[in-house]
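A quick aside before the break. I want you to see a complete sequence-to-structure record at least once, exactly as it would be stored in a machine-readable document. Don't worry about memorizing anything.
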Amino acid sequence: MFEDVKERLQGCVYTIFTPFDAEEKVDYTALDSYLEHMYRTGARKFYAMAYNSRYSQLTHAEIMELNAFCIRKVKALDPKNVAIVGDPIHCSTKETTEFSRHAKEHGADLVSLLVREKYFSDEQIMDHYAEVGRDANIGILVHEMPFLSGMNGLQMHWPKSLFLELPKVPEIVALKEDAKDFETTCLALSLEPRIRVVIAGRKSTFMNYRPHGARAYLNGISMLDARIGETFWNAYESGDQAKIKFILEKLEAPFFDRCCAKYGWHRTNKALLQAAGFMHRRDRMPLKHLNDSEYALVEEVYREVQAACKEIF
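That is the input. The structure line, written in tokens, reads:
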């Protein structure tokens, strides 16, 4: 039933970042322009998601409005584009089902579901996905992040037993791997090809999973220009090691090693997009955006990355 969208979910998957204007309202004008740019440079798979898309800063009504806008825009650019949106980070199964139905009604291909309730059992998690899949009848992308244990409150990776249960829910099409742990990621990849696994993190990290059948990853530095992601994927597929090395060392490393390592991914991604002229770096509290002196480093790195891009485009 969902085989077609799974097959299209290969290569680079592009995050939809949520910009805010000076009054801290969602800046739909900037978002519209950014989506246009990403499509024009080659993006075909768009993903509004829990943290990159700032769901934690939005009301539930705003998330629905954002989801509807993103689906409408992505499909207007090309009906064949893949549109993925999510549910609120913390909510009940009933509300997740409402968001999933809303996503389907507006034309989404998949709904990304993140369970942030404390983990007590595999049955608890599987009942959640099974109920949503059955009642909303939409393809599900499981957003797999470490749980907090309901028994001792400690962070824990998903157990192998839970991964093995996922294929039993027919609506589960894909999984966004967000543990950033080698063993856990390999467990997720063992579900391929039944479930497409989208790996988060750096392209250099993604390369470690090639022997394990990795077929999709989240954009990273390619958020600037989809030609970076598409060029990397073509090199990955063809085995062009020289081009892969150039992208990893000249485009990816400066941003991750000098900016993300210092200020964190979630504060630097929108700062980089501001440096590129797509949106302002501001966020809603309690997430504080980079101050001007911190932002100056991001601008410097952006200029360096842009200069390097001219060597491959």
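Two observations worth writing down. The mean pLDDT is 97. The longest helix spans residues 241-263. We'll return to this after the break.
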